[in-house]
Write a structure and sequence with these properties.
Immunoglobulin-like; single chain; 15 helices
């Protein structure tokens, strides 16, 4: 048995939405509370004075109830609170796992006979057909694992003695066991498609991506990747809110949005975000997905992901779809969108007209190079000084090589005019440095540096549209601009039908 850690929280604190808050079902005739769950565990040789009923949520075990021994090795969980349907684990007094099971509906009644080892071959289930299948699945899995373990020992022996024919035979035996388990799961899916545990197994299973070839007969990997993105959720029932409390949920969501879609363009990510949310026809899966997506894309360091966050907020939180959020929270989303949207990649950068140390005024949009780096810094900020030195080194090296294709519009902010002017005189930067508390607009508000702090970086293209709205490593600026030009060139070719 493995050691288990779980969260001891009050029931009301771990519910993720008001619609799921613990409720008391009352009898219409007698006015008494109706029992919503009655679960008995008969555990042979158990010495625990208390055991715990825990629910899976995002890889954690959350306490739902506890029970003291009512007889030797007998523990009964009985209550009127509304348990969430999902994947549960019975945890011993010493925080080790005894058994896992499914609460598939309410009211829920089950009796499970077992021992302290957690061995499924010693388990028996009464009154719950779905959990009888859970136990049988565990038995089949343990059997397969034991067989594979023995075959691995054989394979290692044959490999050490260079008996390649024998190694291949062992691999064939392993393949037979693997196929046996896959066939077993396929039969479960065919016979019991509505069982929650079976839905989880289907969600874990891979779907086939067809061979797609281009006009020349070559494998079209781009089209196959698009097919995978489009059909990712085919085996996952996002319309069943119970899936939120199954172990498969978090991993599948993170894999899709943090791996499969991570480096896609914003428009592509937005397309699949909408597709996913459209499949969340149950309020629980919709709420789970909204909460995850909003946090993930708002906090992401990837360029362009803030645009996905804005897309999500404008089409969900700000359209009244998120019923669990109060007006104060919705207002925060509204203000967040108002601050970030003007600074998204592709938006036209606001022109800044600010004086230099001689009180000559300069425009961020009037510099001659194709690209402009707007660089916000504080002369007394150690990080600003370090990063500015790197920028100076890059600027000088590209200038010497004759390949510098950007100008720097450096803005000294959050400092007194005296400190700013002294810094400019001491450093003697080759680029334009402006600052002070004057300007055609509140430049700190316009570029949201109240939030991002110093140093901050924005890169504008020839049209003075924003192409970078986060500070990237200084040494990556040339490669970033080179990649940007390649992307723009490919866009132009596609537009012209090439």
């Amino acid at each position: 048995m493995r050691k288990i850690r779980f969260i001891l929280l009050a029931l009301s604190l771990v519910i993720i939405c008001p619609a799921m808050q613990a409720q008391k079902a009352k009898s219409s005739k007698k006015g008494k509370e109706a029992t919503t769950y009655d679960i008995i565990f008969n555990i042979k040789d158990a010495k625990d004075t208390i055991v715990y009923l825990t629910l899976n949520y995002e890889g954690k075990l959350m306490l739902r109830d506890s029970a003291k021994a009512t007889a030797s090795g007998m523990y009964r969980f009985k209550g009127t609170k509304k348990l969430e349907c999902g994947f549960y684990t019975l945890v011993a007094q010493k925080r080790v796992q005894y058994a896992s099971f499914i609460v598939d509906r309410l009211p829920f009644n089950m009796i499970m006979d077992m021992d302290t080892t957690g061995d499924p071959t010693n388990m028996a289930v009464h009154n719950s057909p779905e959990n009888a299948i859970v136990v049988d699945f565990q038995k089949q899995t343990v059997k397969a694992q034991q067989e594979i373990s023995e075959l691995n020992k054989e394979k290692q022996f044959f490999e050490q003695h260079n008996q390649t024919d024998s190694v291949e035979k062992v691999r064939e035996k392993m393949s037979v066991i693997d196929k046996r388990m896959k066939d077993y799961i396929a039969q479960l899916i065919e016979k019991h498609p509505d069982y929650l545990f079976v839905k989880m197994q289907k969600a874990y299973s891979q779907f086939d991506v067809p061979e797609i070839k281009d006009a020349d007969g070559n494998m079209n990997n781009e089209a196959r990747a698009a097919y995978y993105r489009e059909h990712y959720w085919d085996n996952f029932d996002l319309g069943d809110g119970r899936m939120v409390f199954m172990p498969v949920m978090q991993g599948k969501v993170k894999d899709y949005f943090e791996k499969v879609l991570q480096y896609q363009e914003v428009d592509t990510i937005n397309k699949y975000v909408d597709m996913t949310l459209d499949k969340c026809t149950d309020t629980l899966t919709y709420q789970y997905m909204i909460n995850y997506l909003s946090h993930h894309f708002e906090s992401s360091k990837n360029l362009g992901h803030d645009g996905v966050f804005i897309h999500i907020a404008k089409n969900n939180q700000l359209k009244g779809k998120c019923f669990w959020m109060d007006e104060d929270l919705i207002d925060k989303y509204r203000k967040r969108v108002e601050r970030l949207e003007p600074l998204l990649i592709g938006q036209h950068g606001k022109e800044l007209i600010i004086p230099d140390t001689s009180d000559n005024w300069h425009s961020s949009h009037a510099l001659p190079k194709d690209y402009v780096i707007i660089w916000f810094f504080d002369p007394d900020c150690p990080e600003c000084r370090k990063e500015t030195k790197k920028l100076r080194k890059l600027y000088d090296s590209l200038q010497t090589a004759g390949t510098r294709n950007f100008d720097v519009f450096a803005i000294a902010n959050d400092c007194t005019p005296e400190r700013w002017k002294r810094y400019v005189k001491e450093e003697g930067h080759p680029w334009l440095v402006v600052g002070g508390n004057k300007g055609n607009i509140d430049y700190l508000e316009a570029y949201n540096t109240y939030e991002t702090g110093n140093p901050s970086m924005f890169i504008l293209n020839k049209k003075r549209d924003i192409i970078c709205n986060k500070r990237i490593p200084i040494e990556m600026i040339p490669s970033f601009l080179e990649q940007y030009e390649k992307i723009e060139e490919n866009k132009l070719k596609r537009a012209q039908g090439h």
